[in-house]
Amino acid sequence: MTEPEILIEKYLEGTITSDEMRAFEDLMARDKDFKAEVDFQLEIRSSLRQQDDVEFREKLGELENQAPKTSSKRFWMGIAASLIGLAMLGMWWFLLPAEKEDLFQAFYTTQRNIHEPLTRANGQENLTYEVFLAYEKEDWQEALDLFYSLKENSPEEYIDLYIGNCQLQLGKYNDAIQSFEALFNSTDLDLKHRGTWYLALAELANGNTSRAKELLQQLASESGAFSDQAKELLEKMD
Amino acid sequence: MIDPQWVKGLAGDDALLKKLYDTYRNPFISFLRRFGLDEDESLELFHDSLIALRRQAKSGQLLQVKHSFKTYLFAIGKYKAFDWMKKRGKTILYRADELPELIDFVDESPEIDDERASLIRKGLEFLGKSCQRMLTLFYLEGLKTKEIQALEGYENENTVRAHKSRCLKNLKSWIENQKEHD
Questions:
Q1: Is ipTM beyond 0.95?
Q2: Owning domain of residue B132
Q3: Are the beta carbons of A213 and A234 closer than 8 angstroms?
Q4: Same domain, yes or no, for B125 and B75?
């Protein structure tokens, strides 16, 4: 095994040292055969990568067909098609899809972490710390998985509020609706109002305008933290 | 501080790739739409960004990145969005964010014409399974000689080198023969 071959190998592996790189560049400049060999091996790598890119892009296309979506064109086109049918029946009061999407985006903000401030008083990290860290880092899938584990260990009612928010972020509206509904009969009034507010937004995102309105009217009629926001959203929907 | 599960997903673990895709698709698209791209354009750049990251995952570069996966993915997305809009003379809507500037980011798209690439791949098929595997492990999967030795059970690194060298020589001869026949 001659040294130039080892230099090429290390160059392609990315393990070449700076001294070896100088020797490599020197050979590239003055040895035609060496340069031809490097170019040939780079061509092999490029041709394999090109094929791999094509196959990987196809795989991404398949994942796209299965992926949960928050605002996919197909979803809204489906809603739009339904609305044309409804319009023919004279039901003009339904919102146009784009308006509904905009309303959800305009009124939705993720629930802040108000239950577990992230401090490490004892320098210890437990599951609660890990889950809220993932939540605050907006690693929604990771946070969701950890919230499920947390709920198994300590079935605190407030966990559903965060689970529902993770699901909303992941576009899992039906799951989010179920999570927020669990808070609907909570005796903790603040939690109940927060749950109802997010439930209304999840219903809106899921295309169920009439249910969203019903929930917002309920919130607006009670003097809670979300009463004013509910009234404002109802006005925009009318 | 890249989460190793995403590196595995990009490098070939299909279940983790699906988890990655479902986790970051919607946030990435919402993020790019802030710059004025529509959903289809944002989706195309999401795929382009994942392809770029796959190459880095295979070469081992991705594990050395000092940012979180999300920060790095979004920074690549922003880089690609600006590049995409610049090429099309579109106005870039500026939004403040805390993403790092990717000064060292090199988007290594394969630079080879389709005909030549196709000829090389045909040659690889001609060489047979053993050489195909050897060259794929080294040039595509980014395995080092030592790793190939351990994975494939070669006696030592020199045996790997000798086998690779024979494969390269045969591939070169096959390509030369094709040229003579044309």
A1: no
A2: 96-180
A3: yes
A4: no
